[in-house]
Amino acid sequence: MSRRILHMDMDAFFAAVEQRRRPELIGKPVVVGGMGDPSSRGVVATASYEARVFGIHSAMPLKIAYKLNPQAVFLPADFETYEEESRKVKKVLRNISPLMEDVGIDEAFLDISAISRSSLEIGKEIKENVMAVTGLTCSIGIGPNKLLAKIASDMKKPDGYTVIEEDDIEDILWPLPVRKLLGVGPKTETVLKDMGVEIIGDLAKVTPEILSLRFGPSHGNFLYRAACGLDERPIVTFWEPKSISRERTFPRDIGHWQTIATVLAALTKEVVLELRQEKMIVKTITIKVRFSDFQTVTRSKSLEEASDVETDIRRAVFACLQRVELVKKVRLLGVRLSRFEKHFSL
Ligand code: TTP
Ligand code: MG
């Protein structure tokens, strides 16, 4: 049986959530990121499509976004709400098929090979159900593997539905930049560029031997096959996070111990919330403190017994903080949880 893989990606996710809960923002340029203050040092997490017209995009400093469009509405990121919406969407997908791979807050793969309905019917049902439970649109791509499904979902955003068949590989896949291939990151992209390979069609013309020499046999072979639209990677249904973390950069460097403690407590609350949602208990807690001169220190503590209790974790965070010499002002604070165990009593 040939495989049929679906990839779903929410449209301008954080911005769309904000526009839905504040309908007066619909149709307006909305920029979500940092603490929502465009004069602060944060970066854009996402921009609504209306804001993208001005050249505003993810990872751009908020100050630059403000210069591009001072009229845009700048909002802080509210991860709790986005994660709640994300969970609703993933539930819709799991109801279609339990073979779901959770890739990130706003995207997932679904293996729909065994479902007898047409791709169009499945795509429609997902869009309708996602709209019914969240009021948001998503884009869907379907293909014979994860690689092509992911490329397909990106092709007609927003509210897109795209199918890529094996026959479309030359026409659709080859003109795209190599970076679009799932598994090609910035490092591979740079090496390929040095080799004169910019688009996927260029990559398909390089022999597997040369790619293996450059990237090693495993990645080299993967690249060659990917350029031909081939990808056997399975759907990974159970995913355990390697770590859960939150960071906050301050608009102004702070020297107040009390403020530092309050922010660490708030970050702890956020990571514990996510930990509990994942039904995990954690062993190791790490804090990160970046000073005004960018010197960065981390301190870790392992609990005797893994826990998901906020007071236990906060106590560990403060034990870490006591081991940091606060002689300079602080620019950024972070809390990270790692080494998880599954919580079976839930
Ligand atoms: P994306 O799916 O990359 O972007 P998007 O959903 O905002 O827009 P598109 O319609 O093009 O898919 O990322 C999903 C969410 O992840 C996004 O809403 C915000 C967050 N995010 C960041 O916080 N930082 C980033 O650099 C990126 C790319 C995304
Ligand atoms: Mg998205």
Please render the helix and strand layout as text.
Elements: E1 5-10, H1 13-21, E2 30-32, E3 46-47, H2 49-52, H3 62-68, E4 73-75, H4 79-96, E5 100-104, E6 107-111, H5 119-134, E7 138-143, H6 146-153, E8 161-163, H7 169-173, H8 186-194, H9 200-204, H10 208-215, H11 217-227, E9 243-254, H12 257-277, E10 280-291, E11 296-307, H13 310-322, E12 330-342
Parallel strand pairs: 2-4, 7-8
Antiparallel strand pairs: 1-6, 1-7, 2-3, 5-6, 9-12, 10-11, 10-12
Helix pairs in contact: 4-5, 10-11, 12-13
Bound molecules: thymidine-5'-triphosphate and magnesium ion.
Structure keywords:
346 residues; Alpha-Beta Plaits; MutS, DNA mismatch repair protein, domain I; DNA polymerase, domain 1; 4-stranded antiparallel beta sheet; 13 helices; 39% helix; 24% strand; globular; binds thymidine-5'-triphosphate; binds magnesium ion
How would you characterize this protein structure?
The protein has 346 residues and is of the alpha+beta class. It folds into four domains: 5-9 and 80-168, Reverse transcriptase/Diguanylate cyclase domain (Alpha-Beta Plaits), CATH 3.30.70; 14-78, MutS, DNA mismatch repair protein, domain I, CATH 3.40.1170; 170-227, Orthogonal Bundle (DNA polymerase, domain 1); 243-342, 2-Layer Sandwich (Dna Ligase, domain 1). The protein has helices at 13-21, 49-52, 62-68, 79-96, 119-134, 146-153, 169-173, 186-194, 200-204, 208-215, 217-227, 257-277, 310-322; strands at 5-10, 30-32, 46-47, 73-75, 100-104, 107-111, 138-143, 161-163, 243-254, 280-291, 296-307, 330-342. Helix 4 (79-96) runs antiparallel to helix 5 (119-134) and helix 12 packs antiparallel against helix 13. Bound molecules: thymidine-5'-triphosphate (TTP) and magnesium ion. The site of magnesium ion has 4 residues, from strand 1. Thymidine-5'-triphosphate binds next to strand 1 and helix 1.
